[in-house]
Amino acid sequence: MPDWKIAQAHKLAPTYAASLYAVILIRNFLPGSMDMSDAIFKNKKPNLEKLRLFGFSLDNGVYKYTIGIADGQFQMIITIMDNGTVSTKVVDPSLNEEYVLHRTPGACGSFVGRVRTDYENVLREISEKCFEPNVFKSNDAQKVIQYVRDTYHDELEFLWQRFPDNAIFRRKDSNKWYGALLVLSKKKLGLDSDEVIDILDFRVNTEDIGFVVDGKKYFPGYHMNKKHWCTVCLDGSVPIDEIFQRIDASYALSVK
Questions:
Q1: In terms of DSSP H, where are the helices of 90-220?
Q2: CB distance 232 to 246 below 8 Å
Q3: Quick one: 161 and 104 in the same domain?
Q4: How many domains does the chain have?
Q5: SS3 content of the chain, % helix, strand, coil (to 5)
Q6: Cβ atoms within 10 A of the Cβ of 127, count?
Q7: Based on the domain organization, do 80 and 144 belong to the same domain?
Q8: Rounded to an integer, what distance in angstroms lies between the CA atom of residue 90 and that of residue 97?
Q9: What is the crossing angle of helices 240-253 and 139-152, to 10°?
């Protein structure tokens, strides 16, 4: 940072001036940086219509939103690509200088804390209001989600904060589950592979379990009552139309 900018810092609030000096020291001695945005937007995808309603403007395929933080002392600029990539920048308009202490390891102090808190709150609000879960990324999983949405008008429910890779489909009338999507290693199904895949749990008539489960395409219900549930890998090993039929049968079994 040029000397004239350091001198200008003396005219600012003491806590902010101290923060500017800290930026110089940290940039020189702590080259790494951290950003909470990766964690906040992990396994999520943007809803482009919700971005627009929130206040994002679209320019050449990039969604941009600017908001004041730290009582208006800084401008926070958020840009989101249509593929979900999120980038942020915090700028001090009075100096035309980017502020980085909020994502610098070891930076502390009341002013840095306030900026960091405002920064996080903005990102979390955008994540909650403009993004949707995107945990299950296989083609078959996406087809299952869309099929259930179109056929039964149901959406995945993520019930367990400790297990963000697990979600269920539930009938509205009976409140019973008729499907569950999970992410796990094939080895947990007894297969000789460490590949991590999406799976679907679905209901089956008790008397049919023995005919369905074969240990190759269909498996005992993972984390379910194995007398009533089966598991299928969403990796192309079973035709998608056959999986849709299993979902329909499971839905029919999930009555009161």
A1: 110-130, 139-152, 209-212
A2: yes
A3: no
A4: 2
A5: 40, 25, 35
A6: 18
A7: no
A8: 9
A9: 40
Are both 37 and 107 inside the same structural domain?
yes
Q: How far apart are CA 128 and CA 141, in angstroms?
A: 23
Q: Are residues 14 and 81 in the same domain?
A: yes
- Rg of the chain taking only CA atoms, in angstroms: 25
Domain with 219, as residue range(s), is 139-253
CATH number at residue 68: 3.30.1820
Domain match, 195 and 104 both? no
Is there a contact between 67 and 73 (Cβ–Cβ < 8 Å)?
A: no
pLDDT in tens, the chain (256 residues): 443 343 344 344 444 444 444 444 444 333 444 578 888 998 888 999 999 999 999 999 999 999 999 999 999 999 999 888 999 999 999 999 999 999 888 888 999 999 999 999 999 999 999 998 889 999 999 999 999 999 999 999 998 888 889 999 999 999 999 999 999 999 999 999 999 999 999 999 999 999 999 999 999 999 999 999 999 999 999 999 999 999 999 999 999 7
In 55-109, where does DSSP find H-type helix? none
**Which residue in the block uniquely carries the two structure tokens 């192309």?**
236
Please state the pTM of the whole predicted model. 0.67
